[in-house]
# Entry
Amino acid sequence: GQNIDQPTEMTATEGAIVQINCTYQTSGFNGLFWYQQHAGEAPTFLSYNVLDGLEEKGRFSSFLSRSKGYSYLLLKELQMKDSASYLCAVMDSNYQLIWGAGTKLIIKP
Amino acid sequence: GAVVSQHPSRVICKSGTSVKIECRSLDFQATTMFWYRQFPKKSLMLMATSNEGSKATYEQGVEKDKFLINHASLTLSTLTVTSAHPEDSSFYICSARKVEGHYEQYFGPGTRLTVT
# Structure
């Protein structure tokens, strides 16, 4: 079966750094996506990785290791507005997105 | 940009009635649109994949006669919940995929359906 694992909830302090991990087992791989979803809103696209390595975009970075079936999303200089759920999704060989359950990130002052 | 709109944002209806939700890609063409359902504190659940000009592909367990999907143009897909029941109350989200790019999906703002 296909499986995406990520922690259910994480807590971090404003101004700090947090790393959200995602491991996956899918039938084929055509890229990994990270989305941010605030409560009651639809997800918004954050990043896409298809090759191994780190992709940096402002305060957010995403890392991928295909051999390990592993990715992480790194958030720096945390702000209160970063409190949200972060969804990891993998595109399988049929170009279907397989979604993780999401990690709820709580930012404390 | 890649903007997707969804209408209505909230709807309350009585049991037995039908509700139509529209999903539009405003600044790009989308040959493929997706309809998701999300329960509180749960992840997205794909209901169906909608391709312009052809029948939608429904995920296992999703009743195609209850959730009617139409994708008549490259910028519009509709989901009609027929004979709605309280258990159909949920957050329904559509997304559209650009023809070009990395196949990322751009989401509409969602529709919160409450069936009384």
Q: What stands out?
A: The interface with chain B takes residues 30-31, 33, 35, 40-45, 48, 50, 87, 91, 95-97, 99-102, 104 of chain A (CB under 8 Å). The longest strand of chain A covers residues 18-25. The two ends of chain A are 40 Å apart (CA to CA).
